[in-house]
Known about the structure:
The protein is 0% helix and 46% strand. It has no helices and twelve strands. The chain has a five-stranded mixed beta sheet with strand order 6-12-11-8-9, with no helix packed on it. A three-stranded antiparallel beta sheet has the order 5-7-10, with no helix packed on it. It has a two-stranded antiparallel sheet with strand order 1-4.
Amino acid sequence: FKKTEKTNILGVTAFELPLATELNFGTWKINANIEGSQSKETLDVRVEKYVLPKFKINLDMLKEWFLVDEEIKGIIDAQYFFGKPVEGELIIDAYRYVGEWSKYTTFEADISTGDDGKKEFTLKPVEYVSGTFGAGGAGSLILNVTVTDTGGHEEKTTKLLKITETDTILQLISDSR
């Protein structure tokens, strides 16, 4: 696929990429040429078959940030769209940012009939995480949640949390140079 487009004043353009009826699933790469020079960056785009979701996963956290020495607690609520609770298996993979994303713990549990589609979870404290500028000096934790129902259908959701050393963060922002 090749197409020439004009960008707006911010250097942005939109385009549609037509796909064949039978195509290769996997990672496709998109490169941009600007005035004859190839860009240094390549965008990876995942192409896969769309599967209509059968149920929804809600991830309710007690709060949006946690201390490094504090347990991470929350509730998973998995419900079919027609109102019935999901029965099946729950897996939470937790990744902390320490210069790169590193898996530090996994939580596994069964969601049974008596749970009404809900399961409380507790993860061990993160203990160490690297702060980043984008998080205002706080560290980051990603929870990848996977629920598989008894029919083998799998749904996923992700939650990004902030991790701090103290419960107070002080930032100074100048109003001039």
